[in-house]
Amino acid sequence: MRIMIFILKKEFRQIFRDKTILAMMFVMPIVQLIIMPLAANFEVKNVSVAYVDHDHSSYSQKLLHKITSSGYFKLAGNPDSYKKGLKMIEEGNADLVLEIPPGFERNLVREGSQKVNLSVDAINGTKSALGGSYLRSVINDFNSSLDVNIKLSIKKTNNTSAKIIIKETNWYNPRAEYKYYMVPGILVLLLTLIGGFITALNIVKEKEIGTIEQINVTPIKNGSLF
After folding, report:
1. What mean pLDDT comes out for the span 176-192?
2. Per-residue DSSP letters for 158-218?
3. pTM for the complete prediction?
4. Residues 50, 76: contact at Cβ < 8 Å?
5. H-state helical runs in the chain
6. CB of 45 within 8 A of CB of 72?
7. 3-state DSSP call for residue 24?
8. Measured distance CA(42)–CA(200) in Å, rounded
9. How sure is the predictor about 154, in pLDDT bands with cuts at 50, 70 and 90?
């Protein structure tokens, strides 16, 4: 045990004398923990939406406000036709085109249903898939918050049995931001890699300054040294 203490003292002194090893131990991990979670981010935000509104009703305006206030979408424009919306996609000014047909609010109130047209730019596969999925989620959320749907659901469920509704809540990272999932993984990776790098650099440094031969001739067992 006494021999191990002396070896540890010697190793720490050599580490703190070498600025390269100190930089690898402290500067590199801190910089990587700050930059990599922000750079390696697969969240899709600021998706440009061309909103083609043929109805100009209160419900279509509420849907537009719901989309733009979600934090994932920005309004690229309000073209007056679907062809102009597709032209915006071809020119790179929009990623999605959402077309609201005439009679949108009337059909929701009278019939309880209405179809909308969603066109997605599939050149960027990841952005198109996630952006389309986000927009469908926003539309479903808007649909579930309408008073019309609430009335219809009450009429339909009067004679049905009770149902169990499951709701999920994230305690860790409640906003599901990707950078907070990246930090623990990067930290474990850095600890594994830096431990090997420091060991390799220390051995190379011992050979360069000639102290590795002195260690070999000292009365130290291999178990204590390695």
Report:
1. 77
2. TTS----------SSSTT--HHHHHHHHHHHHHHHHHHHHHHHHHHHHHHHHTHHHHHHHS
3. 0.54
4. yes
5. 2-17, 19-22, 28-39, 58-68, 82-90, 104-110, 125-144, 147-156, 178-209, 211-217, 222-225
6. yes
7. helix
8. 34
9. very low
Q: Where are the alpha helices (DSSP H) in 91-124?
A: 104-110
Q: Which residue has the tokens 């291999």?
A: 222
107, 55 contact by CB (below 8 A): no
Task: State phi, psi for 72 to the nearest 5 degrees.
Answer: -105, -15
Rg (CA), the chain: 31
Region 5-22: what's the mean pLDDT?
75
221 secondary structure, DSSP code:
-
The amino acid occupying position 204 is V
Low-confidence winner among 41-45, 46-50, 138-142, 189-193 (lowest mean pLDDT): 41-45
Q: Is the pLDDT of residue 52 over 90?
A: yes
Which strands form 96-100's sheet, in the order they lie side by side?
73-77, 47-53, 96-100, 117-120
Alpha-carbon gap, residue 210 to 177, rounded angstroms: 50
Please, are residues 176 and 137 in contact by the beta-carbon 8 Å criterion? no
CA 63 to chain centre: 25
The packing angle between helices 58-68 and 125-144, to 10°, is: 130
- pLDDT score for 162: 45
